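Supplementary Methods S3. Complex input for the EPZ-bound model.
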Amino acid sequence: MDSIIVTGGAELNGRIPIAGAKNACLALMPATLLSDEPLTLTNAPRLSDIKTMTQLLQSLGAEVTSMQDGRVLTLSSHNLTSHRADYDIVRKMRASNLVLGPLLARAGHAVVSLPGGCAIGARPMDLHIAGLEALGAEVELKDGYLHAVARGGLKGAVIEQRFASVGATENIVMAATLAKGTTVLKNAAREPEIVDLVRCLRAMGARIAGEGTSRIEIEGVDRLGGATHRVVADRIELGTYMIAPAIAGGSVELIGGTRDLLPAFCEKLEEAGVTITQTNEGLHVARANGRVHAVDVKTEVYPGFPTDLQAQMMALMCTSDGVSVLEETIFENRFMHAPELMRMGAKIDVHGGHATVTGVQRLKGAPVMATDLRASVSLILAGLGAEGETQVNRVYHLDRGYERVEEKLSACGARIERVRGE
Ligand code: EPZ
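Predicted complex, serialized as structure tokens:
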């Protein structure tokens, strides 16, 4: 397994291009199942999760071709040969469950493995099931698989989610595009990736209004056509690289970044003493001199502070000038980066959903281990400012969600290299 070695102390100066959003692309790709005409996605990120989704869609009979070195994907599910998403694929990537809604809407049935737990939590699917049952599907759990059937097709309904789940919103909206009648989804997720999915579905002929608000209305149509859609910029990659100069010093321009993708996050970074300026190419980020200020953070659904940036913010708070409390409200076990940061000298107390971080002058490099996608990148960020060498192991987690992280950071002056494992 590959490792990444970071030697701390170098300031960062330069430009980092922000790729298309992993979490948008993982919802856009299954949308091909809703139509028998080609869907072309541009600005697609080159990540292992995209390869996994490609394999899954191909196992269902879809054709997926990638061009321009993976930046352009053309998907076509003219004739589906299977409606079953196997455990060995779904367990690797939970987003595989996003084929459930489209398969049900297009083919009238789907068999999708429950993903099983992952490092950050149990990841149940009760909200997905409740939404699809409201649309008239019968969903049964048998030997670890969800068996969903929509005899006579899906019917529009009024659905209110107890929690604004991103994935459940995506499954319900995609399924409702081909349901008979109108669907109103209340307490819908508002994330930019939902807005991007709806824009693509609308280009395919879907009739949807309200994306980005808590109330999305979908008027079912008989069929959807093809489309070409540009994947929105990845706000989590953006936020991750905004923290890099805040930790290492210097100033970086993040090409393609816009403030509206991360409203609460930008406010918190500015409170901590980081300057953020929108330029006509992206976001320019610089740390004012000296240490960042301690700020408290509570993760919330969009437009609140994103849970996917909590680990990265914790890495920044490790060398703040005070005490910061980070509250994780979205996942039940998302502080696994804390013990690894403590190996680097961080002072962190974790109690339930709260982590209290007391800033120290500087961390010390150490061998650390990645446990999940965002935890792994938080360790690299910590290494940028640490004294000496930090070796981050198990970086396959990293490659799921970050394109060429060592190239993007070394282009700005970071001392970082990938060591190929056996
Ligand atoms: C999406 O996961 C993202 N993944 C996650 O990013 C992100 O952390 C999450 O949204 C929250 O923003 C993709 O888009 C592929 P949820 P998703 O359904 O859809 C509970 C990353 O690092 N829940 O909004 O699975 C669930 O257990 C990944 O890129 C239920 O209880 O998130 C969790 O506690 C990690 N029942 C909370 O809701 C359900 O049926 C948020 O889940 C569904 C979810």
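The chain has a mean pLDDT of 95. The first helix runs from residue 22 to 28.
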